[in-house]
């Protein structure tokens, strides 16, 4: 079974586009209705100016999941937050077609949190702490060694 519709986009083009415009993020939000008082939410997104709204809609067709939502007056986002869609489509796609930039490190962290959630570790105090630590080292918070060292 194909995880994506190759008639919409070439998968290598998608990888390049996501390398430049995509984001893999882990959110940890207060939620007093949960036992630990926190909720973990994974999100894969691609943000574009509103003039490229139709392009974002094609990602829904390509991946067969997700949705497009407004992200302010001038932007829209293609979003996938459903853990089953992330596990079934998004993570396997980027495992088969790896990213080419340092964004691959964020994807690796994202996928490891998904595995922890599949194993219900996010429902334990230690698991939640581990996820918060991973989250704290992703995206703009990632620290790189200087190449001159």
- Counting helices, strands and paired strands, the structural category is alpha+beta
The total number of structural domains is: 1
Strand composition percent: 15-25%
- Tell me, what is the CATH class? Alpha Beta
- Tell me the distance between the termini: 47 Å
Number of helices: 5
Mean pLDDT: 91
Question: CATH superfamily, called what?
Answer: Homing endonucleases
Largest sheet, if any?
4 strands, antiparallel
GO cellular component, one term: mitochondrion
GO molecular function: endonuclease activity
Protein name: Homing endonuclease LAGLIDADG domain-containing protein
Keywords: Mitochondrion
Structure, described:
It is a single chain. The chain has a single domain (11-138), classed as Roll (Endonuclease I-creI), CATH 3.10.28. The protein is 42% helix and 21% strand. It contains five helices and four strands; from the N terminus they run H-E-E-H-E-E-H-H-H. The protein has helices spanning 11-21, 53-63, 83-96, 103-118, 125-135; strands at residues 22-30, 38-49, 67-70, 75-80. The longest helix has 16 residues, at 103-118. It is globular and about 45 Å long. The chain starts with 10 loop residues before the first helix and ends in a 14-residue tail after the last helix.
């Amino acid at each position: 079974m194909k995880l994506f519709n190759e008639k919409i986009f070439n998968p290598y083009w998608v990888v390049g586009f996501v390398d430049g415009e995509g984001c893999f993020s882990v959110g940890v939000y207060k939620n007093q209705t949960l036992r630990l008082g926190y909720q973990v939410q994974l999100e894969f997104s691609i943000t574009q100016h509103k003039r490229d709204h139709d392009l974002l809609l094609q990602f829904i067709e390509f991946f067969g999941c997700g949705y497009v939502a407004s992200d302010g007056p001038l932007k829209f986002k293609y979003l996938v937050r459903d853990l089953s869609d992330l596990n079934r489509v998004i993570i396997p796609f980027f495992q088969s077609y790896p990213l080419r930039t340092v964004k691959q490190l964020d994807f690796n962290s994202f996928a490891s949190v998904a595995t922890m959630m599949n194993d219900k570790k996010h429902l334990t105090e230690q698991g939640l702490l581990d996820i918060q630590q991973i989250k704290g080292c992703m995206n703009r918070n990632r620290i790189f060694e200087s190449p001159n060292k």
